[in-house]
Design a protein that fits this description.
This protein is mostly helical and 324 residues long. The protein contains 17 helices and no strands.
Length: 324
């Protein structure tokens, strides 16, 4: 695995350096873009594939656990209570649209699930978590990540001007950004550009929303095992249980108890983002570009529809319930 992992590390270092120059995009996004570009120019030899697969799965899971170390269970429970109606409405509506519209567009089940969960919960982290329990194809993962990250960037650029146009308060914009933008870095970028109060509100909402990873991944893991049994296949439950989600919750619990010093939070977050960049480099490098070309524009169309759905649903429910 070492040669492939080494290539992923090189791509991640380059992406991380460029991410410092272009913080709007960020290292993880650039890592998958560079990885896909390299695969497009020259298909990697088979000897590198095991390392790519290790990085794209194991390091993705490790990055999720590290991100959990920055969460506080008490803060999430307290600050996220007010956002619950908006969060549940956007979650249910987005997943329903992913199923209905995805089927109408003729997209395969795994790609529909990845786009739906990635848009409804928290972008790359949710896609990573779900892909590890449904054995999703690398091309589907790459396309879902690419679509979700594309609309993250669009949201960062247009949400603040739209917020001012709609005369949203700081708390209202924070609620909107936290529920309608997927990636944490994009939420922070958009919300803090609107105002400090908006940024603080958005972060709490976003962390609460990220906790939905746990029940949705457990549900799909159960569905995956049930389908395998129905097909007469034996399934090793220990290999299907999303242990990294358990560690994710455990890391958040340790942080809530004060066992993780606040001084290391920044370092852990940077390490998590770098691990995510290495993992996404592996996803990009191992992508089957022919399958992506075969898929065409339909996944991107679904991603755009889901992004519009979650943005408008969040605003509508917040207005109806007089939230923010």
């Amino acid at each position: 695995m070492l040669p492939g992992v080494a290539v992923c590390l090189v791509v991640a270092v380059i992406a991380y350096g460029l991410g410092g120059i272009v913080p709007l995009v960020g290292g993880p996004v650039l890592a998958i873009i560079i990885g896909v570009a390299v695969a497009l120019i020259r298909r990697p030899p088979p000897s590198l594939i095991p390392g790519f697969r290790f990085a794209s799965k194991m390091l993705l899971q490790a990055s999720i656990v590290l991100l959990g170390a920055n969460l506080s269970l008490a803060e999430i429970a307290h600050g996220g209570a007010a956002s619950l109606p908006v969060m549940l409405a956007t979650f249910v509506t987005t997943l329903a649209m992913a199923y209905v519209v995805g089927r109408a567009l003729g997209l395969d089940r795994d790609l529909r699930r990845l786009l739906g969960v990635g848009t409804a919960i928290c972008g790359g982290s949710a896609i990573a978590a779900l892909s590890s329990v449904i054995d999703a194809d690398q091309a589907d993962i790459a396309y879902a990540l690419g679509a979700v990250f594309l609309f993250n960037i669009v949201a960062v650029l247009i949400f603040p001007p739209l917020g001012h146009l709609l005369h949203l308060s700081q708390s209202a914009f924070g609620l909107w950004a936290g529920t309608a933008i997927n990636d944490t870095s994009s939420v922070v970028a958009a919300a803090y550009s609107y105002g400090h109060a908006a940024g603080s509100s958005a972060v709490i909402v976003k962390l609460t929303r990220a906790s939905l990873i746990v029940p949705i991944v457990v549900f799909y893991a159960w569905r995956h095992v049930s389908a395998a049994h129905d097909a007469g296949r034996k399934v090793d439950w220990r290999s299907v249980i999303p242990w990294f989600i358990v560690w994710f919750v455990g890391a958040a619990a340790l942080n809530s108890l004060g066992l993780i010093p606040p001084g290391v939070h920044g370092g852990l977050q940077q390490l998590a983002l770098f691990a995510l960049a290495v993992a996404l480099a592996g996803v990009g490098l191992s992508t089957d570009l022919e399958k992506i070309r075969t898929a065409g524009l339909r996944p991107l169309m679904l991603g755009a529809i889901l992004w519009f759905t979650i943005a408008t649903t969040s605003l509508t429910v917040a207005y109806v319930f007089h939230l923010g």
